[in-house]
Design brief:
The relative contact order is 0.17. The chain is built from 12 helices and 14 strands. The chain starts with a helix and ends with a helix. It is globular, with a radius of gyration of 24 Å. The chain has 281 residues and is of the alpha/beta class. The chain has 2 domains: 148 residues, Periplasmic binding protein-like II (D-Maltodextrin-Binding Protein, domain 2, 3-Layer(aba) Sandwich), CATH 3.40.190; 90 residues, D-Maltodextrin-Binding Protein, domain 2, CATH 3.40.190.10. It has a 5-stranded mixed sheet.
Amino acid sequence: MTQKAKAGIMTAIATISLMISGIPAVAEGKLEAIKSAGVIQMGVATEPPFSELKADGTLTGADPDVARLVFSDLGNVDLNPNVVDWGALIPGLMANRFDAIATGLIITPDRCNAVLFSEPVLCMAEAFIVRKGNPKAVTTYEELVASDAIFAAVSGTETSRALSLGMPEDRIMLVPDIFAAVELLKSGRADIIGFPDVTLYQAMKSLSEDEYELLSKVEGEPVSCTAAAFNPANQDVRDFYDSRMVALRESGELQKILSAYGFDPDLPATLSRTDLCGAPN
């Protein structure tokens, strides 16, 4: 090989090296970032049996237990709970203050426009707790609106339903969690509290059955389902969550968690994210 040929080859190699060095590195996906960090920042609200932060700092509940099992496939990844009020969950997710929400967030079309949901994790019906004998004679949301009852609930499905039927805002008391709602009911400041049935089953354990009663499965209300939620920029995490959910359902591990917390283990498989969003999400 002539010196001229060698020089040409060396020049070509140098040119290729410069070109490669100028190519930006592929950005690390969110899923890989979580795996590398060994921790996922989880947005939660206090609403047992969906999620609850115990006094010793332990995060429990059906949603966190499912999430913990899902992310265990990444290796040694811890769930770090970020406890906030309901109204701060989606804003916090969008501001990247946490990586996911796993806390009983119900899939609704409006929320589907803001976040990415996993496939349904838990499904339940709407319920009320009223005073014994149901003195306000309320068994439906229509009757609630037509009555003079003061209604306590978190900002979400229940309050949206009441407002959509024309309930005055001054008869709705927004609360941060079920515990605050129960205190309003016990103090007489609220007449009725509305939450998913499984939440109110738990709440009734702290109330006297001689004074209060549970109206489960409010007439005329559809079944609703919760799911894990993700920032739209992190579709890789959502898709991973979905794939692991399929595997956990096939193995029966998912159903064991749901049953342990009082949920119907088979109901989520009968509905899809697209059904509940009203469009692909």
